[in-house]
Hints:
- By secondary structure, the protein is an alpha/beta fold.
- The chain has a single domain, classed as Vaccinia Virus protein VP39 (Rossmann fold, 3-Layer(aba) Sandwich), CATH 3.40.50.150.
- Helices cover about 40% and strands about 15% of the residues.
- It has 13 helices and 8 strands.
- The protein has helices at about 5-10, 20-25, 35-45, 50-70, 90-95, 110-115, 115-120, 135-140, 145-150, 175-180, 200-215, 225-230, 260; strands at about 75-80, 100-105, 125-130, 155-160, 190-195, 235, 240-245, 265-270.
- Strands 1, 2, 3, 4, 5, 6, 7 and 8 form an 8-stranded mixed beta sheet that branches.
- Helix 2 packs across helix 3 (about 35-45) and helix 4 (about 50-70) runs parallel beside helix 5.
- The protein is globular and about 50 Å long.
- The N and C termini lie far apart (about 45 Å).
Amino acid sequence: MDETSAVTRGIDPTQAHPARRYNYWLGGKDNFAADRASGDELQRHFPKVRLGALANRALLQRATRFLAEQAGIRQFLDIGTGLPTADNTHEVAQRHAPESRIVYVDNDPLVMTHARALLNSSPEGRTAYIEADLNDPEAILGHAALHDTLDLGEPVGLMLIAVLHFIHGDGAAKPIVTRLLDALPPGSYLVATHATSDFGTPEQQALYQQLIAQGKSDVWTRGKDEFTELFDGLELIDPGVVPASEWRPEPGAEIPDRSDINVWTAVGRKS
């Protein structure tokens, strides 16, 4: 899609959007000059940021496989979907359990234009897409497409991958996560990843706070303690809270330095 057609669809191509910037870091083509400029600006200050994006995407695939293969989850609510790329949640889940049902949620109108790729379900399963914002969990939980696709009386895998760090403010993410989990039955799982400054030097941490203050970054990093609090009341699945590249890596995988990833990850089960 070019910038002219984007405008006709109600998309502002002059404003960077996290989903499109993430697509750029992953090597995709569904992004505009503003997204690339934003991505390049962050990468100029933090040269390994693209490695973190790739590690985060690989974690989504491993965690989805775990839920479908080992945990027996057949329903997924993926909020902050992003633009379609290789091995989306439904593709991984349905590869292992073709009957899996997935609801995707994102607030970027460009994702809607690519929804056909997200809705290409296996014959046995089902997928749906909701254009909504994580800041409004009630709109997500009350949406007809959610209830038409998922049975909230049965366990659900809640996927919050690289999206909670767009909720700004100390303690601001936890009430949203709690509300979503409250709507899901026992046996459900939370999979979350979150950008952090924990592994940066004091100088890097100060620089990042300056970028946020200047509006050059929209990612609100959180430390391990606040991230771990999102899983209060859940049974953490081994290995617990670790960087994305260290959560059940593929055999023989090279594990990067934590300062190259800067993404906390955990999977928890609701009792």
